[in-house]
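Anyone up for a design puzzle?
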């Protein structure tokens, strides 16, 4: 495993490559591992009232924002997030539509998605509880009423967004490389990273990329596009990343941990972005006087005392890649 992936603490073997070569790839190149680490570190390093910038100058930025966002998703899944908490469940009015996945068989790993509506709160065996009325045509669960208990609200983990197509494949993939990944944590993934780019070009560039994850068994191979759970806008389905056009009025990442500016064009509108941290990716050839001017204005208010230093990584970036990091103080809204 590359030294760049060591800080991630992955428990299984991870590979990334084209659909033609993924089965024969035994390791990830250092430059790819570096990009995964960069997205992971920028997503995990959230400091109150501090915004961290990472600028990467690359031989080519094709597919690089997708690889960085893959690292961001891994970083988010490695944290202790949960589906709806008991307090959140209690705050929702009766009739609220929710979703919960359950194993199709008792000992199987395949999940099925059930839709239901929250019912009344009541006392169940001496503890607070709330009814979940299932709405499905599946004979096994038709007209069922689940009881959600205050002491164990994640017995039936609930979300307000429906799980994506092939959610089962996504969950099993990440479970192969992330230690003790719970279903509840997987369900809590939502809008973790904003990528501002040319949407058509981005989708075209990554369509042939795949990732493979294995522990001691046969590797699970998935399209990278599937694993990122992308959405062009919030369509009500669970999304890992949001893809936005480069127009200022389309930039919508106020509550997200990380934004990735894919190229010099979105850099011009960085002040419209409200995410916690920002990554800026450019080809070496794109680093012109205009880009230098924007970055000079940004760095003029930098405060290096606020910048956390990454630990456990190589001293030098991979050949052909230049990295610059700085931080600035922000005011809490």
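Challenge accepted. My sequence:
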């Amino acid at each position: 495993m590359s030294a760049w992936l060591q800080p991630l603490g992955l428990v299984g073997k991870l590979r990334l490559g084209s659909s033609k070569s993924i089965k024969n790839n035994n390791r990830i190149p250092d430059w790819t591992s570096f990009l995964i680490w960069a997205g992971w570190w920028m997503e995990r390093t959230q400091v109150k009232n501090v915004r961290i910038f990472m600028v990467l100058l690359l031989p080519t930025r094709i597919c690089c924002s997708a690889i960085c966002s893959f690292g961001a998703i891994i970083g988010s899944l490695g944290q202790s997030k949960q589906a709806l908490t008991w307090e959140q469940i209690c705050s929702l009015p009766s009739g609220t539509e929710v979703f919960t996945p359950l194993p199709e068989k008792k000992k199987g790993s395949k999940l099925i998605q059930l839709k239901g509506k929250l019912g009344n709160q009541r006392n169940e065996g001496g503890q607070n509880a709330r009814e979940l009325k299932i709405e499905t045509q599946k004979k096994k669960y038709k007209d069922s009423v689940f009881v959600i208990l205050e002491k164990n609200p994640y017995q039936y983990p609930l979300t307000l967004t429906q799980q994506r197509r092939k959610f089962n494949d996504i969950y099993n993939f990440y479970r192969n490389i992330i230690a003790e990944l719970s279903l509840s944590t997987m369900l809590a993934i939502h809008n973790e990273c904003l990528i501002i780019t040319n949407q058509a070009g981005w989708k075209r560039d990554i369509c042939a990329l795949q990732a493979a994850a294995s522990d001691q068994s046969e590797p699970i191979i998935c399209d990278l596009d599937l694993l990122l759970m992308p959405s062009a806008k919030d369509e009500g389905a669970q999304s890992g990343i949001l893809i936005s056009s480069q127009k200022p009025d389309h930039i919508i990442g106020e509550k997200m941990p990380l934004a990735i500016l894919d190229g010099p064009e979105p850099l011009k509108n960085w002040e419209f972005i409200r995410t916690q941290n920002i990554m800026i990716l450019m080809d070496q050839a794109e680093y012109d006087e205009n880009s230098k001017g924007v970055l000079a204005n940004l760095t003029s208010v930098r405060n290096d005392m606020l910048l956390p230093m990454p630990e456990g990584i190589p001293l030098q970036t991979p050949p052909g890649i230049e990295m610059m990091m700085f931080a600035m103080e922000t005011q809490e809204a």
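A detail worth pointing out: The radius of gyration is 21 Å.
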